[in-house]
Amino acid sequence: YPSGNLAILLVREKERLVCIVQEDTPTKARIQAVFKSNGRSTCYYPNGAVWINMTVQGGQYLDQAGSRVRRWTWPNSVTSSGPCVPLRPIFLSLNQHVGVRILGQDRITVSFLAMGQQAKFNVGTKVQVSDGGRLPPAARLGEDELLLLAFRVRILWLFDRLRGCLNFPSSEQWDKIKPPAYLITQALKILQLCTTSDVSDEIRGSVRAIASS
């Protein structure tokens, strides 16, 4: 910074690179953003709350209270076999001198501007979800596994609905609360697995009822 304080630090952590943005403070400077070459990155508000959080699957934009403003999935994420939620360009000002521009997984730029001089750092990366992030092959899924997956989606949907009811106490709004897009996608995947797995019609019907209710 013009003050002489360290603004951006590039370090190597084992086999990955890390870009760290610090606030303009001489001592005990707080971290304002961390970008890792493995696809995991986080930006923070001045008060320390998480602003942007990104993984190899996608990312989310939060307000200062911690509520999600929007989310997105990267087009190359193997976990998003259904329609993905596209990223809308994001521009952040971490402080007076440092800004962040997010246009895609491999198009993330940290810009530093001070005293008429500018420096840009490309901190994006093209990392896909490993095979471990995928659901097991349909042939390996038995009745118990399918039921557990269906109950998991159902429980997550109930928790999300509960949060919605707390935000909108009026019972007139409850029926308008829709499942999040990622839960709809997971439910469709489970239903697809259910049709191709070697399970009884009774179990198949139970899974459908649980996951799609």
Automatic annotation (TrEMBL):
It comes from the Eukaryota. Residues 1-177 form the FAM194 C-terminal domain. InterPro entries: FAM194_C. It holds the Pfam family FAM194. This is ERIP6 protein. The lineage of its organism: Eukaryota, Metazoa, Chordata, Craniata, Vertebrata. The gene is Erich6.
